[in-house]
Write a structure and sequence with these properties.
Number of strands: 3
Oligomer: single chain
Order of helices and strands: EEHHE
Strand order of the largest sheet: 2-1-3
Structural class: alpha+beta
Helix content: 25-40%
Number of domains: 1
Shape: elongated
């Protein structure tokens, strides 16, 4: 699942305006999309205001940033058991 968000910051590191989702993985279910949108927005809320220095704050203020969030969610593999790996207690 990939989600890309377009966001801008103020000089003091706060979010400027509303973050906008610009891309989501095709074929994802509505429940997955909603869960990832909520997680991304909560992440942005927890991480702001960003600790910009005065110079960096002046350089990035108002500029749009595309931030990509992705996961490599895979199905869990069953534990492989081999006879020679199993400890034998005598």
């Amino acid at each position: 699942m990939d989600v890309t968000v377009l966001v801008s910051f103020t000089r003091d590191g706060a979010i400027l305006g509303q973050p906008r989702v610009t891309y989501e993985t095709e074929g994802a279910s509505d429940n997955d999309r909603l869960a990832y949108r909520i997680a991304v927005m909560e992440t942005l809320q927890r991480c702001t205001p960003m600790p910009f220095s005065e110079g960096l704050g002046g350089a990035v203020a108002g500029r749009p940033f595309a931030i990509r969030f992705w996961t490599r969610r895979t199905s869990p593999k069953p534990a492989e058991r081999r006879a020679w790996l199993t400890p034998k207690i005598l």
